[in-house]
Amino acid sequence: MIEPPKAVSRSVARTVAVSVLAVLVVATTLPGLSLVWDSTDTTWTSQGELGLQSDYDGRVKAVAPDSAASRAGIVPGDRIDLLRTPYESRAYVAGSPARAPANIHVTAWVIHDGVERLVDLVPAPRTLPVLTRINLVDRTITAIIFVIVGGLLVILRPSSMTWGFFFYCLGFSPGIAFASFSRFPSPAMHALNVIGGDVLTAAGTVGILLFALGFAYDDPPPWRMGLARAAPVLFILFALLIAYPDVANLILGWPAELAQRIMLTLQGLVFALSIFAIVQTYIHGARENRPRIQWVVVGLLIGVVANYIADVLTFSSALPLAPPRWFESSLLIANVTLPVTVAYAVVRHRVFEVSFVVSRAIVYAILTFFIASAFSLIEYFVGHELEAVRLAQFIEIVLAVCVSFWIKALESRVERVVDVVFFRRRREAMRRLERDAKAIHRANEPETVDDYLVNEAVAALELSSAALFRRDGQTFTRGASSGWLNDSIPMIGEDDKLVLTLEAEGQPLRTNDIGWQPAHLPAGNAAPILALPLMNRQDLTAFVLYGPHASGADIDPEEQDHLFALCRAAQSTYEELRLNELSGLVKDLQAEVARLRNGAVTQPEVAAEPQRLSERT
Fold first, then answer.
1. Cα–Cα distance between 172 and 191 in angstroms, integer?
2. How many domains is the chain partitioned into structurally?
3. Closest by CA position to 65, among listed 79, 76, 55
4. Which of 142, 367, 386, 443 has a 20 to 30 A CA-CA distance from 266?
5. Is 126 within the bounds of a domain?
6. Would you state the pLDDT for residue 360?
């Protein structure tokens, strides 16, 4: 079926928007990896060369021993006068600081016990500890996981809920936190990057609320719908609240710790409301959904709480603590539990109505990303390190040819490897249904076909229920079934909405699409969600109702297609068995007719025998 142009254009626009935002976050994250081999280039923290941490009032929270700040006599409790500090130096000592490159001069006015003095800070080159480097690599990998999971979810199942989750993945990616501290060509560029990150953080703050309000909740109450409708206003509010302290510090030189604390308090309330909403979904939602969403609840609780504590410790002095940076980084890394648990729920339990099989297109997209990243590193290395010996261009050509051959060899194996590693049981179920669709043609009894449609389909896909309804005069009577109680609905009239729709369309039908909920259907997870017709030309001869998976997961489009193929094969077999039955009946009638004709020929001769005897007498 060809999609309409508007749907295609929306899909393209959505994919482009997701790609641009994802590339933006990744592009500001990956440069931080240079610290792994060169700690004097760029970094994700102010504690290092300068060796001080300050809040948005310029109040010094901690000073590292044997650092530029400690050598200048700065101690915790001192306050930096941001207004008098030169603009070009302000970015390195503000509440959201940039890293000062080694050996530059950062001048700042510091107030100690009411006495103000001008200090000159000269950051010395420093090699980062191994633990810090490992933490940096972990945060970069975590940031990429955030972008991939959030972006794919929007592309596969676009909605306000998945967009909210994607913005949370962007705004609270562990990479965003240290991208803001990266060294940019000028303080103005640093300020622009920080404010851009603030806007994404505002979108993520509201986004996680949207996600929690709509996740696994089909019929939200008015309070949830009201909060969802208020999302644009909340976004504008948080964009102003989050950006103001950075604008005040970096551009205006104003203290802004009070505004920062107000923002963090309101942000904490939104996070608490998000946790409340998803916990309420787990407690008061359908009981059969609990196994599907329990890990998402745990992931959101751990991720949001850990991220919020890290933000408060890093960007405020509201808590009188100054833990080491590796501890704050570990809290940010813990935030990855949310996208990981969401990805697990989508792949394992299919909590959203998407076919989340990793297709070749997705795999190639991921491969392309990593290959492009690898080529960037290769280009940097050969371009800078081997340029002197004029080997750069030759090596790049050789590597490009080698990678192209590798991709060609990989093409035939990608789908098989992905299916085996991630979707082995699913792949086996699909193959089982394909074999069933072929074997069903060999059936000699209608009851055998019934068993394939009901019991075999339930066993192959681990469904909760199935029932076959066959036409019986003006009604459809329930025959073979699985997961249906004896008192469940025994028959459905030919004027029922479900029957009329199936007969008119002749295609699979989701019961929720037409609001079909008659009395005495199986309750809970056994309730049917999919109806598949069996058609004889334009006439509906029977239909099968299938429930979701026993785990509560929905039947995805690929599984639906395989079930429909099984139904078409069953209908063909029913017709073949009926033709065989009619053919046997015709043969029996022909034999009876022949016997009767033979009897009609001999009867007159028997009747004429007495007359001949009389004549002889």
1. 18
2. 3
3. 76
4. 142
5. no
6. 44
Task: Say yes or no: 178 and 205 in one domain.
Answer: yes
Report the mean per-residue pLDDT for the chain: 82
> Strand pairing of 539-546 and 79-80?
unpaired
Q: Residue 419 and residue 421: Cα distance in Å, rounded?
A: 6
Q: How confident is the model at residue 130 (pLDDT cuts 50, 70, 90)?
A: confident
Alpha carbon distance 319, 62 (integer Å) = 13
Of residues 369 and 331, more confidence is placed in: 331
User: What is the pairing mode between strands 491-493 and 475-482?
Assistant: antiparallel
Are 337 and 383 contained in the same domain? no
From residue 63, give the alpha-carbon distance in Å to each of 82, 85, 227, 253, 509. 18, 19, 43, 22, 66
pLDDT digits (tens, 9 = 90+) for 256-312: 999 999 999 999 999 999 999 999 999 987 776 777 788 899 999 999 999 999 999
The one-letter amino acid code at 177 reads A
- Segments of 45-105 assigned E as strands: 52-54, 60-63, 79-80
With cut-offs at 50, 70 and 90, classify the pLDDT of residue 374: low
User: Per residue in 593-603, is it b (16+ CB within 10 Å) or e — as a string?
Assistant: eeeeeeeeeee
Cα separation, 415 vs 405, in Å, equals 18
> Is residue 198 within 8 Å of residue 245, measured between CB atoms?
no
What's the predicted TM-score (pTM) here?
Answer: 0.67
Residue 318 has phi, psi (to 5 degrees) of: -60, -35
Rounded CA separation 611/272 (Å): 113
Question: Which residues are CB-neighbours of 462 under 8 A, at least 6 positions away?
Answer: 429, 549, 550, 551
pLDDT digits (tens, 9 = 90+) for 44-87: 333 346 888 899 999 999 998 888 999 999 999 999 999 999 99
Domain extent, residue 412, equals 371-422
Rounded CA separation 478/544 (Å): 9
Radius of gyration of the chain (CA): 36
- Among 575, 578, 571, CA closest to 453: 571
Q: How far is the CA of 107 from the CAs of 104, 121, 253, 255, 260, in angstroms?
A: 10, 6, 14, 18, 25
Contact criterion met (CB below 8 Å) for 50 and 93: yes
Closest CA to 255 of 205, 317, 195: 317
Structure tokens at 182: 């990266």
Q: Are residues 470 and 326 in the same domain?
A: no
**Angle at the Cα of 437 from the Cα atoms of 433 and 440, rounded to 5 degrees:** 125
* pLDDT score, position 556: 80
What single-letter DSSP state applies at residue 508?
-
pLDDT score for 179: 47
- Smallest Cα–Cα separation from 246: which of 98, 74, 77? 98
